[in-house]
Write a structure and sequence with these properties.
Structural class: alpha/beta
Distance between the termini: 42 Å
Oligomer: single chain
Helix content: 25-40%
Number of domains: 2
Strand order of the largest sheet: 4-14-5-13-12-3-9-6
Number of helices: 11
Largest sheet: 8 strands, mixed
Shape: globular
Length: 446
């Protein structure tokens, strides 16, 4: 019926204590009312990798249109026209200007705040991060103002010392000067936050519940049946694909929870966290993709592993700790291992970006309508320098960014200028932010 009532963009499939948000469907606009097509949301995300980068295999020698990508960035080759490689962005407040919190604490604490954190393990003080500034302005439009996720916690690894505070190395997002927002590490906890009642169960309660566990989709069967009967063929296919992706996440979670391997020798495996880094990354990003697709949130911070991590990557033949390797003193063998870790991280990120680019959202993709920064708060982990930070943006923010090129700014250009520009694209105009001197020129299509 061309006169049918449009399905609301914020529609949910509901069941017992469950609310499954829907992706963008054609039925969410009245037939023949192109002018009423709901605007596609723009998403802003930050994916942070620790301990700097092997810049020999990251930087290119040219500016302008991207040609052949260097070794670490090579996994992004298929998305070359949808990425922007930035040069000479600097975090001056990551340096030891005052007492600071150690290089690793400063580089992580200042990354999204532009403010130098204080050095103390008791009284922490940083700044409000750009993601939370945006969340405070537009968060009411989505179920979750922001999501904070990660893959490792220094306290679990027993790797905190008095040289810098865990508050800085463990967190990207800061709600206030003294309140960091810890990332969710456990895939089951993230799943329950997105789809359940938001109550995290104890391991004992989970064990009891697992005997009777059903798919979350079983609780919304009736709503799903009613909705499918009212949709056209294209929307039914979209809905089936979307619900299938949720079902697959559940299967991955079940496999992870049955995995009795340990993440690190001598460390008890936290409940539901896969021992394999790539599996953990994929599981978390699959859920983030669902959250983006259903417009549950438009703001994300992802701490790939916490800053200063000494995590080993035995799955790629590297039993050495990541952090010690970065202090290689130009030893070729150690430098090669750092490069392999950097490349391994990028391979996981690129696979996620390709997945985002495969999900259509009207006449564009989830990736097209996103701005996803991938980078580090240190440039060279051996030198611990904070200038020319490795930074790549995936996506164009709904056609805002001119991608497929490398843009090099004058030396010492504040990284905060990039975040000021991104906040403005999200509809949040700030006169000041961190140590920003103004928006970045030449980044958009204007």
């Amino acid at each position: 019926m061309i006169t049918r009532k449009a399905l609301a963009r914020r529609s949910f499939l509901r069941g017992m204590g469950t609310a499954v948000a829907l992706p963008l469907l054609d039925a969410m606009t009245p037939a023949f009312a192109a002018s009423q097509v709901p605007s596609k949301p723009v998403r802003m995300a930050f994916v942070y990798v620790p301990n700097g980068m092997d810049l020999r295999n990251w930087n290119v020698t040219y500016e302008g249109k991207l040609g052949e990508l260097p070794h670490i960035l090579k996994p992004l080759e298929a998305l070359r026209e949808k990425i922007t490689l930035l040069g000479n962005l600097t975090h001056n407040n990551g340096r030891a200007l005052l007492d600071g919190a150690g290089d690793h604490g400063r580089c992580c604490g200042s990354y999204l705040t532009g403010v130098q954190p204080r050095k103390t393990t008791i009284d922490i003080k940083c700044g409000i991060s750009c993601d939370q500034i945006v969340a405070n302005h537009i968060g009411q439009k989505t179920r979750f103002p922001s999501l904070e996720v990660g893959l490792e916690d220094a306290r679990q690894a027993g790797d905190c010392d008095s040289g810098y505070s865990c508050a800085y190395t463990n967190n990207l997002a800061w709600r206030s000067e003294t309140q960091p927002l810890p990332p969710i590490l456990n895939p089951r906890a993230l799943f329950e936050r997105l789809f359940g009642k938001g109550v995290e169960l104890t391991p004992e309660a989970r064990a009891r519940q697992s005997k009777y566990r059903r798919s979350i989709l079983d609780f919304v069967t009736e709503d799903t049946r009613k909705l499918q009967s009212s949709l056209g063929p294209t929307d039914r296919r979209k809905l089936d694909e979307y619900l299938s992706s949720i079902r697959e996440i559940e299967r991955q979670l079940e496999r992870a929870e049955k995995d009795t391997r340990q993440i690190n020798p001598g460390m008890e495996k936290p409940y539901g966290i896969p021992a394999d880094f790539a599996e953990h990354f994929r599981l978390m990003t699959d859920m983030i993709t669902v959250a983006f697709r259903a417009d549950m949130t438009r703001v994300l911070t992802f701490l790939v592993t916490r800053e200063g991590t000494s995590r080993a990557y035995r799955e790629i033949g590297i039993p050495d700790g990541h952090h010690p390797l970065t202090h290689h003193r130009n030893n070729p063998e150690l430098m090669d291992k750092v490069c392999r870790i950097n490349r391994y991280h990028m391979e996981q990120f690129a696979a996620w970006m390709e997945k985002l680019d495969s999900v259509m959202e009207g006449d564009s993709t989830l990736l097209d309508n996103s701005m996803i920064v991938y980078g580090a708060g240190l440039a060279d982990g051996n030198r611990h320098n904070h200038d020319d930070l490795p930074t790549v943006i995936a996506g164009t923010g709904g056609g805002f960014l001119k991608a497929g090129r490398r843009v090099v700014y004058r030396k010492e250009t504040p990284m905060s200028n990039l975040f000021l520009t991104m906040m403005d694209r999200m509809g949040v105009h700030q006169e000041r932010f961190g140590d920003a001197t103004g928006p970045l020129d030449g980044l958009d299509l204007s």
